[in-house]
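Customer escalation, tier 2.

The customer says the design service returned an amino acid string that "doesn't look like it belongs to this structure." They asked us to rerun it and document both sides in this ticket. The original structure tokens are below, unchanged.
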């Protein structure tokens, strides 16, 4: 027997975030501070599409939008980066060295992410984790068997993180 599976996908103009970042490389160099208009897309693999298991697209879009809103109009900083040294972290300012270069930013314009680096691979994985943290856990396994989050930093260039679940 070959069990069926189904996949929902969502890619909407409003499910994006505009952020600045600096990707760090293993030799301790980095890109200059720059930004992207990141586009998000999700694929949700379902085991069952029966009426009794139906979940609204709106439910998923609401979760996606909440994560996008957290990262929108922020400078994304990887707080686990080995080349990051925090000099001062107050309510008003975030001062740091990244690859030995000093920055001072308004604190409310910074999103400190629990990552080693700010790249689309890392962002896709964290986005997926945040999505799962907000998802009703009763949906995983019995209904949802996989989640893929795709983040594009420019058209045709990005990363996809996939998390799989069994019943």
């Amino acid at each position: 027997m070959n069990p069926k599976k189904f996949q929902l996908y969502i890619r909407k103009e409003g499910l994006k975030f505009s952020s600045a970042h600096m990707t760090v490389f293993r030799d301790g160099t980095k890109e200059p501070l720059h930004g992207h208009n990141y586009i998000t897309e999700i694929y949700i693999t379902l085991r069952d599409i029966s009426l009794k298991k139906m979940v609204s697209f709106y439910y998923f879009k609401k979760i996606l939008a909440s994560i996008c809103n957290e990262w929108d109009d922020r400078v994304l900083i990887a707080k686990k980066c080995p080349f990051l040294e925090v000099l001062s972290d107050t309510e008003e300012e975030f001062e740091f060295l990244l690859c030995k270069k000093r920055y001072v930013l308004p604190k409310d314009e910074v999103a400190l992410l629990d990552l080693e680096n700010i790249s689309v691979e890392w962002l896709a994985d964290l986005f997926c984790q945040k999505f799962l943290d907000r998802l009703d856990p009763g949906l995983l396994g019995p209904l949802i068997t996989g989640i893929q989050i795709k983040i594009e930093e420019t058209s045709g260039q990005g990363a996809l993180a996939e998390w799989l679940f069994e019943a």
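Tier 2 assessment: The sequence is consistent with the input. Strands lie at 6-10, 16-21, 34-46, 74-78, 84-89, 93-98, 101-106, 110-113, 144-154, 157-164. The two ends are 18 Å apart (CA to CA). Sent an explanation to the customer and offered a walkthrough call.
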